[in-house]
Design brief:
9 strands
Length: about 130
């Protein structure tokens, strides 16, 4: 018998671990576990848990190289924040707090209602609704 599959967590390398933890706690009510630190390798991380149970691992280490935008791999993190009015409200809050609003709020060609913003290190976040297109 097959078990139900789900994405357990997504990891994101960051430069400023504390600033990024505070950002996701502040804007998305994520709850952080204590910091993990491996003194031998310099690796450090926080696991952040969202109300839905999904998790984001923020990680850092020495000698991270800058990523070229529009390269293969990670593109964005989509976070459902409620209904369309909630997406609008979150987008406005990001703008008021000085974060770039790159797109939207709008309904995309594939039926998502979303606004695209950036976190403090430029990672793309799609603010979207709980009701996903079929």
């Amino acid at each position: 018998e097959l078990s139900i599959m789900k994405i357990e967590h997504i990891a994101l390398y960051v430069n400023d671990l504390e600033k990024m933890r505070t950002f996701y706690e502040t804007y998305f009510q994520a709850v952080s576990k204590p910091k993990y630190h491996n003194p031998k390798t310099g690796f450090q991380s926080y696991f952040l848990t969202f109300d839905s149970g999904s998790r984001l691992e923020l990680t850092t280490k020495k000698f991270l190289s800058p990523r070229i935008s529009e390269s293969l791999g990670y593109t964005h993190l989509a976070i459902a924040v409620g209904d369309q009015a909630d997406v609008d409200r979150y987008a406005q809050r990001f703008v008021e707090d000085g974060y770039p609003l790159l797109n939207g709020p709008r309904t995309t060609g594939d039926g998502y209602y979303e606004a695209v913003v950036q976190d403090p290190e430029g990672n793309l976040i799609e603010l979207t609704t709980d009701d996903l297109p079929s």
